[in-house]
Amino acid sequence: MTMDEVFETFDWATVIPFDEAATREAALIQRELREDGTPVKTPDVMIGAIARSVGGTVVTRDSDFDHIRNLPVENY
User: What is the 8-class DSSP label of residue 42?
Assistant: First the structure.
């Protein structure tokens, strides 16, 4: 699939940037995970931080997101 096809397929979606607010959330999440002794992959931390910074919910089959505090997760 080309990038043009990806953008066409998901043209209904809103892209939320990894901005300063998400960066701060990512740092908080990393600290919380260290306190809990729970490793989570960096990309998952970044996605969780974006969602948490905008009050969003992550829809996923990846159970790593269940370890991020105060993050609404819908598993499928």
Answer: H
Place of tokens 């992959």: 41
Classify residue 52 by burial, with Cβ atoms within 10 Å: 0-12, 13-18, 19+.
buried
- The DSSP secondary structure of 8-64, one letter per residue, reads HHTTTSPP----HHHHHHHHHHHHHHHHHT----HHHHHHHHHHHHHT--EEES-GG
CA quadruple 46, 40, 54, 75: dihedral, nearest 10: 120
pLDDT digits (tens, 9 = 90+) for 33-75: 999 999 999 999 999 999 999 999 999 999 999 999 999 999 9
Q: How many CA atoms lie within 13 A of 11 on its CB side?
A: 4
Question: Would you give the DSSP letter of residue 14?
Answer: P
At 42 the pLDDT is: 97
Residue 76: the pLDDT is: 93
